[in-house]
Here is the input.
Amino acid sequence: MITARALPGLPEVRRGDDLAALLAGARAQLGPGPGFAPGEVLVLAHKVVSKAEGRTVDLATVEPSARAVELAREMDKDPRHVEVVLRESAEVVRAEHNVIISRTRHGFVCANAGVDASNAASPDELILLPEDPDASARALRAALPGHPAVLIADSFGRAWRHGQCDVAVGIAGFAPLEDWRGRTDAHGRELRATWIATADQAAAAADLARGGKDAGEPAVVLTGLERHVTVEDGPGVQALVRSRAEDLFG
Here is the structure.
C-alpha cells in the first residue's frame, strides 16, 4: 500500500532558514519516532527549497534588457519579469500565446524557465528554481534524521494535454526510472517501450496529498515505495532529461 501524508506545522520559510531542521521537526509531529522511517520518501515543493536557498528576486532590483522589453510588449507582461525569465533560460524555445517556453540550464523545457510568483512572500518577488536541485536534494537527505529519499518537485505543463502535473526536478536516493523494456507483460508479450518515470509519478502522487496550492503544505511523506529507494543518492534528475538529439520538438 502506498500512503501520502503532508507534514504539518511548517512555517513560512525564508532565506537562510535551516530547512532540514524545520522538516525534521514537522516529521516528528507525525510520530511514532523522531525521524524518518527506513524507506520513506520526502517530496518537497521546490519553492520551499528555493526560498531557504535565497533563490528569489525582487522585481525592484531588475533592469530589463531591450529584448525583455520587446517580448514583454508582445506578450503583455511586466518586462522585469520577462528579464528574469531570460536570465534563467539557456534557450527560449518558443514565445507565444502569452507564454515563454524555455530550456533551463538544468535541461528542463518548461514555461517561463520555472520562474513563478505564486506563494512568493511579497507581490514584487519571484521564485526561481534551485541552482542545482539534485545537490539540494542530496544535502537535505544527508541532514535529515533517518536519511529518507528526497524528491524536489515542480508543476510542469505537458505537450498535448491541458493542466499541470508535478514532476521531479531534484532527486536523491530514489531510482528515477524503472525499465521494463525486454521484460514481458501479464500475457507473456515482450515490452518494447515501457520505461516508467517513477520519480515523476511519486512527485505527482505527493501533490494530491496536499490540501491545495494555498494550504501551506510544501512537504509530503510517501511510504510503500521502498523498492525504488536506494542507498546511494543515485544519478539524479538528469536520468529523466532527454538529450537534444532525442528531442523531437525543441
Remarks:
- Residues 56-128 form a domain with the CofE-like fold fold (CATH 3.90.1660.10).
- The chain has a mean pLDDT of 94.
- Helices lie at 19-30, 46-52, 66-75, 79-88, 133-143, 198-209.
- The first helix runs from residue 19 to 30.
